[in-house]
Structures are given as structure tokens and as C-alpha cells.
Amino acid sequence: MRMLVHFSKENDLRFISHLDMVHAMERALRRADIPMAYSKGFSPHAKISFSAPTPLGIPSSAEYMDVHLVKPLSAKIFVQRLNDVLPSDMHVLEAMEIDDDVPGVLGKAAIGCYTIRPYESVQWISQSHINVLMSMNDIIMEKRTKKGLKEINIRPCIKELILMREGQYITTKLLLPSVGGINPDILLEAFNIYTDVRTDVGDMAIHKDDILLEDGRVLLTEQSSWVNL
Question: Where are the alpha helices (DSSP H) in 12-74?
Fold first, then answer.
């Protein structure tokens, strides 16, 4: 069987890399005595897959992992054991037992949901600024890739952009970089270039709230099967 796990990493843990987070979770799974399955060969490793990395420095309540187990374990016990040994800024939110023959969903995640607000509670953006970006067909921005900087049209990457509390913060849905999308810092820079908003990424609190499938559905359509603790 497998366990699909939804967890968060907040506060200081937003500064650890994705690889360090993976290693921390693997150590916690061993300390929690979770009966993980391992690959065969000279260098066996735990059979775990993780959702696409969250950008360094961004806290997230939208981390997922798929853990293969060698014997059955209830989701409730899994969550309790793991939360008992995880650091305080990492917490399992939900878990669901799934059969081995159920197709994986982590690789199908395509959209990241974010909340963006200034650290100081001020009105920094208006509906007119959002309307400017959303009415454009082309928003040309530079994106850093493995081959260097590349100009791309980010408009197709912006799936939703909503003003909240009269401009105190915004929520947005962006295509994930793993499917050719962007991180929120590029969206903020687009506001600087194409509108009269003037803000620095370092002045903004960005939080990753969830990840969705390409059609906007949550990773699991049968949400009633989740064990909430």
C-alpha cells in the first residue's frame, strides 16, 4: 500500500532547500517507525516521491509526498507517529491510504496557489493594477533557466489574480515552474514593469497555499477519503 501525505513547512523551515527537506522527512519517517518500502540493489533507498519544490524562502502548507509501505498502516496512526517526531515548523496536515495500483497524482500538479501581502499592513495595490495585467495578451518577462535568462510570455501562466481586502493582499494561481510556469517573484516584477506599482520582493510575505491539477481540481478528487487531524 501507499500513503499520500499533505504537510506544511513554515517559519524558519522555509529557508531549507527542497533536498534538505526531503532528507529531514526521510529521517523523521525512520524515527517514527513507518514501515517504508525500499528499492532493491546495491544502494537501496526509500520509495518516496515529493511534489514539485517550493521556492526557497516561501513558507508552504502545500507540500505532498507519496510513501510506499511494506505493510498496512492506518492514516491516523501514520499522522500521529510522524507528527510526534517532526520539527515544530513541519507538520502533517492530512494523509490518505491508497492502493499500489492507483496512479500517482504528484506529477500531475500544475498550478500553485499563493497569497501575497506586504509585511507592513498597507494598501499597496488596486483593482486597476490587476486589470492592467489581466487585460494584456503578452507580458514579456525574463525567467532564469538552466541555460541562463530567457524571455517568456508569462500571461498564460497567470490563471487567477484576485484583490483582497481593498488591496491589503492578493491571491493568485500560477502555473508551476515544473510545467513551464513561474514563481510569484516574477509576477511581482511584472507589476513593477507594466503598472505603477512599486514594490520589492523582499518587502512581501508570500505563502504557498495549495497546488492543483491543470483543470483546477485539488490533487485528490475524493476529498472525503482524507483523514483530517
Answer: 18-31
SS3 of 2, please? strand
220 or 84: whose pLDDT is higher? Answer: 84
pLDDT band at 224 (very low <50, low <70, confident <90, very high): very low
C-alpha cell at 175: 502555473
Close Cβ partners of 221 (under 8 Å, ≥ 6 residues apart): none
Q: In whole angstroms, what is the distance from residue 9 CA to residue 173 CA?
A: 20
The pLDDT tens digits of the residues spanning 43-78 come to 888 899 999 999 999 999 999 999 999 999 999 999
| Beta carbons of 163 and 126 less than 8 angstroms apart | yes
> Domain 109-213: which topology?
Alpha-Beta Plaits (3.30.70)
Please compute the mean of the pLDDT values over residues 145-170 and round it to a whole number: 91
d(CA 155, CA 190): 10
Residue-range domain boundaries for the chain: 2-102, 109-213
Is 109-213 the same fold as 2-102? yes
- In CATH, what is the architecture of 2-102? 2-Layer Sandwich (3.30)
Q: At how many degrees (to 10) do helices 75-85 and 18-31 cross? A: 110
Does residue 227 carry a pLDDT above 60? no
Q: What was the pLDDT predicted at 188?
A: 95
Strands 158-164, 169-175: pairing is antiparallel
- Reduced to 3 states (helix: H, G, I; strand: E, B; else coil), residue 198 is coil
CB 194 within 8 Å of CB 136: yes
Q: Which three cell numbers stand for residue 227?
A: 483523514
In this structure, the chain runs to a length of 229
